[in-house]
Amino acid sequence: MSWFVLMSPPAMTPSLAPKAASLAAELQRRVICFAAGDELYAGEWLTNFQRAEGAWDVCVEALRPGPQPTCDAELLQEFCAQTLARLARAFAGHHPASAQRPQRDSLRALLTLHVGPSGRPEVWRQLALALTCADLWLGTWAPPLPAPAAASLEGGGSLPWEVRRELLALPAELLFCDRALPLDDLRLRQAAAGALLDACGAAFTELLLGGSGADAAKVSKERQSVLRTLAEWLRALRKALRLLPTHDPAMPLRVLVVQGDRLLELTRANPADASEVLQQLVRWHLKGCEKDLAMVLRPLLECLFNASSGEVCQSLLPLLTDLAGGCWPQAVLGDFDLDWHSIAVQALAAIRMAVEGAGLEETDGDANDAEAALAVWQTFAVTVREGTHGEPDLLEQLPGLAISKVERPEKRSRMFEEDEWHASPERIANCEALPQLFGLLASEMLELLHVPPDPADAEGLLALRDVRAAAQSTLSAWAVLVGRSALWQQATWSPLQQVGARLTGSGAEPLPEEAYREAEAVLWFSGTLAESWPGAMDGPGGAVLPPASAVLELGAALDAAPEQWRPLLWAAASSLARTGPAEYCQRLLEWTLQRPPTSSCYPELVQLVELPYAESIERLCRHLSTAGEVHVAVGERLAALAFEARPAAALHEDSVKAQSLMLLAMRHSMGSDATLLCQGLAQKVIPALCQAAEAEAQTARAERDPPWRAAQALFGTLSATLPAVAIAPNDRDHPAVGLWRDRWPYVEAALLRWPPSDASDQPHAAAAAALVAAAQMLPVFFPESVQVLARSAAQHELPQVQLEALRKVLASASCRTMDAAGLTELLNDNVLTAVEALLSREDALVANPPTVSALFRLLCDEKLRSLLLARPALGERCLVLVTRALPECTSADAAASILHFTAELVGSQDELSAEAAHRQMLVAAIPELCAAVCRALASHEHLAELDEGLLGAAEFLLRCSDALPAELQPALAAGLRGAQVAEWSSERLQRHVAGRADWPRKGEWLDQLQQIVCECQRERRRATLL
Description:
It is found in: Nucleus. The chain is mainly alpha-helical.
């Protein structure tokens, strides 16, 4: 970006707009002053010049003499070229229809004039941009071809290749992307799209062959530029076809087939950049061009894979992901003419590179590549199962659509006939290639899943945990495809059977440590697979056994492992054990309880093994509880495990979660006897925890960051006493009710008196989570839960945890059991009182977006919204916070919450007619609200994304347009002026809001709103001195 990008003052009024004659005389002097450092006054004048009537003509005249030799003249021409490029973005708005073609021709003449030997790139690039904008507005863009008699690089009578390449690249950059021209009218967009489609044959030929004669010093950069431009063209053409479905979608592909040799040459020389071209081709899911697409892809993929080195291999992951989402699964099932095996080899190589290049065994290894490589295989499995659906519509993925009653836009697959593909379950089950692929994947994955050679390598273990999380998702996706054929049996369970035979067949001879590394990985792998596929494996003598039964045969072998490997092996085996069916549950639970991995574990290992072990125990006990029997011995054992003492070094971020799972397992083991569970915990465990929590409270005020572990354990234990199903609203006889009533002072102390940790929000977080669960399962505590959470929110400066808990409590079924009058009184006296207290601490709230987000999400609750409609004074205070927080809010989540609340508070025309005081409040507030919304839209990039924030802003504008049309128009205009939005962008946004009824679907209206906001932000950035 040039240093001529200027500060943006308020727009000039027409009466102050200088005329063309005076502009021309003053322009040179102001440019010189600005270059000399007078950025304030000269910058303001130059910015006003770009907005003035006559600026276009003045710039054209300044450029008409051609390149000038003096520095001052060069500066002037550079500024004038930039001004023309800026104004050309709204070409049709600056020139009447009769003058548009002559003005376009004058740009072409200026470009020709400034590309000679003395031409400066700073000038001709801006003129090329202006010319391309004009051609796209007119719908007449055509590729710049060399003159028939002169095809040299110098161009002879034509434009030089460097300029032609620039003109070839610009159209794809100016349509269907964040730089898109503001072509508001559908006819204009279709005309521009049609121009690109009609010209693509000549454009591709010129692009691929035009720079083939570049000198050796520039050849690498030239190839890179050509490939990137081609990728952008393919992306733009694919989107253009959605606007013009009558065009032949295969025509661009046939052009590439003709230029196949040149494409292969470029691919061999620049495989990384060529992968971007192939990505766009793989996304060409359009009916009627499957054969043409395969003809292009086959040789290019073969060439690319052969040319890919190790470093390039990792850069192919985005391409492999796209292949996995379409062509590759279709090829595997015989529906697409492509070498699926070569793609699989490349996808396996990506996993292998993650192991060898950035492997987990290296202390500086990064697991990101491994996770991305596994995600490719997950995408493949999901696509086989679900088929392809064309490109997803981002609007379809917005959860706020349902909330704000937006009609869902027509799917893109209906706008243009996508190549949707689905394979029947029978075809998937009979496909022999799938188990072959899974067998190859399993082999590579097992290498990736090995623990570090040193089990005490904490960093390597943490990296392994991240990779296993990705592997778990991949295996879950593949598990749905697993069948009962012999090929599937071999692919899925042979690793487990081989490891079992090796462990049990060694006799007294010790095994090498590598055997235990392999065994641990296989046990984890098999458990993860069986978790999602509760099938069976073939056992000895033709028996059919659950995979979990294997652990019952391996106990002695695992117990004999070296001490440093035993905890890892036990934890992995427990993950497999928890997948067993109900008839094996008792035996598997006893086996697992006898082998707690934390009993002989390095502190570094605890974080890796404790939580999976607790999850396994909880799952097994859940199966145990289905019979309703009481297992007192199991419950006592679990209580001992949950509360066993451990050194501080063995505590980690998941310690409390693991303990809570143990307590939940204990509740399962008690079956239907809630009295026995509550009495058992109330006798010793809970009193001991209460004493420990009180001791923590005594020392907490002297600590900088108290951990509050005893308090967390106390509230986790109280949660474990809750019934699995909510009791009746008036049931006060359930044993958990009395236990909670006795310990209620500790809930109040944690939320109202004990000093919280700034780092973890404990004990607030633990107490609030327990209250949410109690309010749901013990409805008698719903009013008290609301009261104590509201009091805590009122007295703490940044009560994010309490506000989020209140929102969950109000959304629970218990809320619906209260009578309307009682609920209204409860919310008015507690929640809205807490809101008033928070609004009195406005400065602290504005500085903390997470708390602001939590507050406004709570206020979006329909019950609170109805109360705010009847309390306009409180609603006004909320809107004052909106006007302060929104303009400077850089948090996408907080901005979305604020905007959604504001739109909901506006409501409908009928609501405003019924609530006169509320309407009067909104009328008074709408100028400041529009100012805040406009400043936010013009400033924050996250509001230019098709996401919840932009949806909230759209809802606010549309509701105001419907309910307060007379008040919105002047307020919106003033807000856009205050946000320093360019005049033509301001008018465009106002027309778009006022013309909502002209759009048949709101989704399309939102698409165009996004383009307008992007343009407003682009103009603002241009008008800001960097």
